[in-house]
Fold:
Amino acid sequence: MSSIFNLLQHARIRLATNDPEFHNATDTTVAILRSSGVLPWRRSSINGELHKLVSAVIVEAHETNETIDIATRRAGTFNRYGYSTKIISFFDKMVQTNLLQSATGKAKGQLVIGSLLQNYIAA
Structure:
C-alpha cells in the first residue's frame, strides 16, 4: 500500500528521467484513460502534463506491485501538497469504469489496478 502523495512524488521524479519503458507505459495508460472517458481529450494540450502525471501514478504503482492508498479526498490537502484537485475526480472515474477497483465504489481507501490496465502496462 502506498499513499497517493508518495506515488505522485515518485511519478513526478520518474517523468523527469529518460526511461523510455516508463514513458511508453505512461503514454499507453494516458491513451487508455482518454479513450475510456476518464481523462478529457479536449484541452489536452493544456492539461497534458496533469494527465501524464495521473497515468504515471498508475504505472508506478503497477511496477512496485502496490495499491494506491487514498486516505483523504479533501481538495485542500491536494492543494497544500501542490497537486491538482482534479486528481480525485479522475480516480473516481477510473473506479466507475473498473480500471481501478475499490471496496467503497469511489476513490477512497486501497485502490487496486484493474486487469485491463495491468495487461496493457505489462505489454
